[in-house]
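Job type: complex structure
Entries:
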Amino acid sequence: MKEAQPILPAHGDPALTVVLHAAGSPDTNGVTSRLEPGESALHLGSGLRQAGEIADQIREITSPQQEALAYLLSGTPFAVTEHGALRATQNTWSAASLDARNTRAFKPSTTYHLSFSLFVSGNGPSAWAIEDALAAYMTPLLDALAGVSNFTVTTQVQLHASFSPSIAGPTFDEASGKWKLRKEDLSGFVNAAEWPLSPSIGEGSTINFVLYVPAPGHSPLVVADTGGTGWLVPQWGGVAILNLDEPTTPRKSTTDTDRTTLSAANLDEIILTFADQLTALIGLPSSPAGSLALRIAALQRERATALLLSTASTLGALSRLVHKLPNIPIPDTVATSVGALGNAQAASEASEKAFFEPSMVGQVYFPDEHKVAVYVPLLGPMGVPLVLAGVKELLGWYRGMREKVKRT
Amino acid sequence: MKLAQLLVLPAALLSAVLAIPEYSEHLHLRPLPNGYLYAGFNFTASTSLSAYESQHFRYFPRSLGQILQHSGTRELHLRFALGRWDDESWGSRPRDGKREGGTGVEIWAWLDSGGGKPAVEERWSSLVNSLSGLFCASLNFIDRTKTTRPVLSFEPEGTHRGGGGGMELLHGTLPHEVVCTENLTPYLKLLPCKGKAGISSLLDGHKVFDANWQTMSIDVRPVCHVGEECRLEIQQTVDIVLDIERSMRPRNDPIPRPRPVEELECDESKSYHASDSCYPRRKEGEMAWSLSKIFGTPVRGSCHVADGDECPDVSLEISPDRAVEVLHSGSNETLMSHAQNQRLRVYRLSDSGKYTDISLTQQIIQEAPHQEQPPLYASRQITGFGQERGGMHAVLHNPHTYPQRIVYLESLPWFLRPYMHTLKVLSHPTTSHDQPATPVKPDKMFYTPALDRKRGTHLELLLTIPAQSTVELTYDFDKAILRYTEYPPDANRGFDVAPAIIRVLPLNSNSTAGNGKTQDSYLRTTSLLLPLPTPDFSMPYNVIILTSTVIALGFGSIFNLLVRRFVLAEEVPRSALAVRVAGVMGKVRGWVRSLKGRMRGGGEGGGRAVGGAGEATGGAGGMNGISGVAESRKER
């Protein structure tokens, strides 16, 4: 229940600290105030105006947050609320950007498994200094995010990784001397059928980061149009291409005499790219820029809201399912797990579990038609005389009516 | 799981200090008698335990590593097997039978025993379920009824702390499972070169599963050497026995057809040899074969990915007199080749070559093929008839001149209920048939009786098989009747009973009995098919239908009694339909009568009289017709 509780990063530091301290310098007689850990420090001369300024700034910082929460609630019954602050945002631009952020990000989860994979198209390089690179660039970010979710890290090396047959493959561009990957191929670049990118075991989603080293014959490999070497796959992970023989990075290659190992120097830029992609993939808001702690706090609030919403909607779906299919048995475990609405997160997990309870699925495929078919030998011989007798009675009644009419 | 803390260096391995490469692969080829070829693939990868615990994987497959960590598995042995090793003609089993499995799927693993029995069972269930997904096999059906805990049959191969304390062995079998390509594909994905380079490029589902005998194994165990960090080693082996002639069938014509007459090789020395009769000539010498013809493709490239991997890739165990041609493309670099002893030739694939092929010609070799005798011959059958009871009959034959100690393990399904009081172990000497059978007393016996639908039978016997004698092991059993829903769709096929596993214990070093092996070896019998009483599955429907009919009959008569009015036959008014039918019948009758009359008239008169007669009958016909109408009116 970390998420539902307020709003402080779990390790106890307040997200926003207003530090007011008397500046000792003689040229200003006022007080310097700055927002910490935000970068937007303000140095003001007069002490009296400061309270209002600070309030304005805080409002400015929290307004995207308000919009985000309103966006989450829009379209749900909770959207109509007496709090004026939670009115649906009128700003279509921010709605669109929130939409994009949401489609990119993973479903909120207590645990994320980060899987870093080196895919090499040939025989080598077959090792990478990933531990050092991760310790330098990824661990600080993960420590900061510890209040949002838990993270596990696995790495692997895979040789002989071939392109997926579904993509056209890179084409050589004579003008730039580079191999270009078409934009349409980016979504199919990861060869899901052959590359062992199975999700990690245990609860939580797996975020994949793939570093691809193309064969010397296909190097340098870049994305057409942009010329970039990395992209983000929404709700899946990130991909980066490392061209070893690129002339712009000779100093790295020369230091690395052992061609079978990628040094940490080769990897630093890539890990930074992955770190940036990770913040997008877990849905970290991009504002207020510069303050990671404030962004994380904002994410925590959004998480709490989203979890409550998804719990409510899954329970609603389960209830509709039960009404729709009256002949599936509901085990006791489902009843108790539905009752466990102790807190938002536990209930969310329990209701998801209840929805996918395996013992209920089998009975869906025993339709009522089968029951009718089995009882046809009973219903047939009983039904036919009944129907015939009914028809006869009706005819007799009709004739009687007609004769009555004729007589009169 | 803190594996590193649990591992210590065993005293036995202190002497052997070898820098093992992180990955190595090896293919061993040995022609067998009667035109068979044994091919044994071995892929060994390892990772340091610290890297394994922090989940940094290089050549150790990540998918498997995570499963092992999640389920607290310390040592894993997984087998997929098909076919039967013909030890009468092929001799002793490869790798002493240690990398062999019973027909279907077999798995045994040492799991962390922390948390008591329920926790271990939870881990076991999580292990088999995850492996089931990884290998596309029905391993998830290994539930409590198919799991046993053998005591004597298996010992951990790895080096565990405290001689293997704090862990528990569980063993499960699925004899019904059909091993096929969908299991090979994920198996190859665990390899660093993924079947795209090196000797693994020879492994193709069409050839591997066309073999007479095939077994795939995965063994994960911790290995410690002195002065080095402990490592976790994964050994994958594929052992196959191919029929050379069958495998060399061209790929574009895989259907076996009778050979054209011109291609038949006939023994012309026979007296009955003629143009229309042919006695097939005995194959002389060794058959010609090549890798590319047998496996459909030559070896593609090489898979030398680890530092310090200088091991030979391919070894060939053939007579020193045979000529071997090695073809390779891409470079002029010759392959490393040196003979370690007379019979073994080893090769290393060239790193720059694209294709490598080894081919042998047909040759007549005088030397008798060297064949190592297996430690034991074993077979097992079900005896008896009927659907109620039967008997088990296992025959263990020791061909050697020294007695052997064995462990006989059987895990039986719960619906086969053995009677242990009928268990008889009798020994006959093979040298003289006159001697009466003498009973053999098992040195030790472990027996866990079955519980219906909860647990299978586990029977383990420690026996001594006397020199040059045959031991027969028999017991009776009852067949249980299953519940209606417990039968599989093909219930009349029978139910598979897992093979018996026989562990031949090593001889004591101080025993003077003979030159037996110092390492234990394993062999397995074939799996059995147990016919159970199967009900008529349409029975419930028949009952429903019969009951329905009876009810409908009763209902019909009561309904008639209630609804019908009973009157005298004369009182019944004729229905409109009956009247109409009678009218039509009358018309027809009249027409027939008139026709008859006309025929008669035509026969009597001649000349003009014919016309008159004709008119007369016509009149009569008309009359008849009128009378018919009148009749029908009257009836109406």
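Summary: The radius of gyration of chain B is 39 Å. Residues 333 and 350 of chain B are 7 Å apart (CA to CA).
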